[in-house]
Specification:
mainly alpha; elongated; 16 helices; abc type-2 transporter like fold
Length: 373
């Protein structure tokens, strides 16, 4: 019993020493506490794939009822800021080239005549391909507006096909924040935890205290647990803070189990702390450790399904993404916030993150045992 108490006391002393090193650094406190909150607020206000306040250029050579119906639809759209009229296609092309407008619409002189005669009418649309995503989305806006105008002018034609009634599950209003904000729990915290953990042993080497660490009467396990504690607590603190801020500030509902979400946060922080510590044990300087950590964070984020859907990736890359703890944290975070993810599916992702943590903590332990004992 006494031996266990001594082991525990030495581990606590090691962890307290590491935590003190981090918290006494003013820049570190700012980076680890204030910076994540600022990032969360900025992402919440600025990060979206919605396209609004669009400037549209129009060359109208029709001046009939069909063109007026389309122009009314453009003016009534909440996503369009201004409509700029050009006298020719050449002037419209120059306007797109100079970024005066994102898209240009050409209304031909026989547009209203074709609509009235029941013939297929054609409306030209030119999109600025330099803004790929925005251009594609705005082109869909234009398509809906012209189809709606055609349906109003020829109701009989509009009734020929079946009516599509869409119901959006889990995100009724298709609010992009409902997707972005839960994901930030994983994305921002991954950067923080790895940034802290990669400096643990590398900092000792640079400061020349690695020999003192070797002479301390503590085991490799105590060194490992003591070193990962600051990074683990940073991840746990910020993720918990995000879980509280997101529903209160941004109105994203937390429908699922808060307990399962917090267990996932613990597993996720432990996994990333293991990754960072393993990197630190093989790095000679803090700069080297930081660069390796940055190289790890980038593919973790890209393969998580945050920026691009995993289903769009090649099959072999989808298999690689299954080994990504960030991907599993996103699954639990989105599931807990939006759709009350069943406990069985949440636990499957938590187990994968714990397996990932065990693998890299084992690597870190072996490196500590070989290099520092």
């Amino acid at each position: 019993m006494m031996r266990r108490l001594i082991w525990f006391a030495r581990w606590i002393a090691m962890a307290a020493k590491e935590l003190k090193v981090v918290l006494l650094d003013k820049r570190a406190r700012t980076t680890l506490i204030i910076s994540p909150i600022v990032q969360l607020l900025l992402y919440g206000m600025a990060s979206t794939l919605e396209v609004k306040n669009v400037d549209v250029g129009v060359v109208n050579r029709d001046n009939g009822v069909a063109s007026q119906e389309i122009l009314s639809g453009l003016a009534g759209s909440g996503n369009i800021r201004t409509i700029k009229y050009y006298t020719s296609l050449a002037a419209l092309s120059e306007g797109i080239k100079q970024r005066e407008v994102l898209v240009g619409m050409s209304l031909p002189p026989d547009l209203s005549r074709d609509v009235a005669a029941g013939r297929t009418a054609t409306v030209g649309l030119v999109v600025d391909g330099r803004k790929i995503n925005a251009g594609q989305i705005v082109a869909e806006y234009m398509d809906r507006i012209t189809r709606r105008a055609g349906a109003d002018l020829r109701p009989a034609y509009a009734r020929d096909g079946p009516e599509l009634v869409a119901v959006n599950w889990y995100n009724p209003n298709l609010d992009y924040r409902w997707f972005t904000m839960p994901a930030l729990i994983a994305v921002v915290c991954s950067v923080l935890v790895i940034s802290v953990s990669v400096h643990t042993f590398a900092r000792e080497r640079e400061a020349g205290t690695i020999d003192t660490l070797q002479m301390l009467p503590i085991t490799p396990g105590q060194k490992l647990l003591g070193k990962i504690m600051p990074a683990f607590l940073v991840g746990l603190f910020n993720a918990t803070l995000f879980v509280m801020i997101i529903p209160l500030v941004f109105g994203v509902p937390l429908i699922g189990s808060l307990g399962l979400l917090l267990v996932a946060v613990i597993a996720f922080s432990l996994a990333l702390a293991g990754v960072g510590t393993a990197i630190s044990t093989v790095s000679q300087t803090q700069q080297q450790a930081f660069l390796i950590g940055f190289m790890v964070i980038t593919p973790l984020t890209l393969l998580a399904g945050f920026a691009t859907p995993i289903d769009n990736m090649p099959q072999w890359l989808q298999s690689v993404a299954w080994l990504n703890p960030l991907r599993h944290m996103l699954e639990v975070s989105h599931g807990a916030f939006l759709k009350d993810l069943p406990a069985r599916f949440a636990l499957e992702n938590i187990v994968m993150m714990l397996a990932f943590a065990g693998f890299f903590l084992t690597i870190a332990y072996v490196n500590i045992w070989r290099r520092f004992d």
